Amino acid sequence: MMKILLDCFGGDHSPEANVEGGLKALEAFPDLYLILTGDEASLKACLEGKKYDAARLEIVHAPEVIGCDERPIDAVRLKKESSMIKAIRLLRDRDDIAALVSVGSTGALVTAALTRIGRIRGVIRPAFCPILPTMDGGLVVICDSGANVDVTPEHLRQFAIMGSLYMENVYGVARPRVALLNVGKEAEKGDETHQKAYELLSQTPEINFVGNMESRDLLSGSYDLVVADGFSGNVLVKTTEGTALELLKKLKKDIYSRTIYKLGALLMKRMFMEEKDFMNYQNYGGSVLLGTCKTIVKGHGSSKATAVFKCIEQAWKMEQNALPAKMEEIIMKYDHYEY
């Protein structure tokens, strides 16, 4: 039985969405055992009247909630009875628990993971790895997307190794095409860090490096993994998501602006619904924190039940494929100058 923790508070739609997503996961994965952390009375109220296998679900009472506006280090240190920190402690202390899913404060989760859980042997810095759909119906992941603002070339190589293994083992992408986010496609583009990273990536046989990528090509389908520093990766992901959402809003506004457009939209309703689903990040899960000793998946703060389910599915697949052990095996082949 695979035991996964689900932090049920801290999101815009918590705890209802967390609980509903968790129950969907219990139904989908017969070998899954869920441990819900959060206010016990609230969680029991969410479960009331629902059908589920009670033998595979457990509640750990945690009355406090970490807000997204709190300083991460203070929240981790002071809110020991919060749903997130109790979950982190359980993940650290119990060998039978495999993973944690949370839609709470990103800063608090990263801080707690690094100080309480620790890194895979050889990993310099863990990195967030979200996933987006591409125009050809595939997927692309970005590593890093916010955990590390300042990076070295070696950090970027490790991101590429971890991200490649993630794509291979969780999404079944053989020899994923790896690109380095840069200001141009030529090998000499970018600052010294990116030029050196280009060399390192080119010299690493465990990854399928295909060169630099400009941000406009993210969703083209030409790449499976984009390696970036956390600042640039975060801007890239949020700009892409924001642009998609605003385009949908404009399309809806334009359709309602004229009767003839409404008639045309009625005929194309199915297509519009498919495009909406395609652009909806709720259908793709969350950001995996690659490089920690145990599996941690961070969902959007606005995650609804489907997104929570997808996050649990990501954690389940990572554990099914023993991803942390595979990362350690490859990363330890290379010399590292800092830990």
Topology:
Elements: E1 2-7, H1 16-28, E2 32-38, H2 40-47, E3 57-61, H3 72-78, H4 83-93, E4 97-102, H5 106-117, E5 127-129, E6 131-133, E7 139-143, H6 153-170, E8 177-181, H7 192-202, E9 208-213, E10 225-227, H8 230-255, H9 259-267, H10 269-279, E11 287-290, E12 295-298, H11 305-320, H12 323-331
Parallel strand pairs: 1-2, 1-4, 2-3, 4-12, 7-10, 8-9, 8-10
Antiparallel strand pairs: 5-11, 6-7, 11-12
Helix pairs in contact: 1-11, 3-5, 4-5, 6-7, 6-12
Notes on the protein architecture:
- With about 350 residues, the protein is α/β, with parallel strands linked by helices.
- The protein has two domains: about 1-125 and about 290-339, Isopropylmalate Dehydrogenase (3-Layer(aba) Sandwich); about 125-285, Isopropylmalate Dehydrogenase.
- It contains twelve helices and twelve strands.
- The chain has helices at about 15-30, 40-45, 70-80, 85-95, 105-115, 155-170, 190-200, 230-255, 260-265, 270-280, 305-320, 325-330, and strands spanning about 1-5, 30-40, 55-60, 95-100, 125-130, 130-135, 140-145, 175-180, 210-215, 225, 285-290, 295-300.
- The strands form two sheets. A seven-stranded mixed beta sheet has the order 3-2-1-4-12-11-5, sandwiched between helices. Strands 6-7-10-8-9 form a five-stranded mixed beta sheet, with helices on both faces.
- Helix 1 (about 15-30) packs across helix 11 and helix 4 packs parallel to helix 5 (about 105-115).
- The protein is globular.
- The model has no long low-confidence stretch (mean pLDDT about 90).
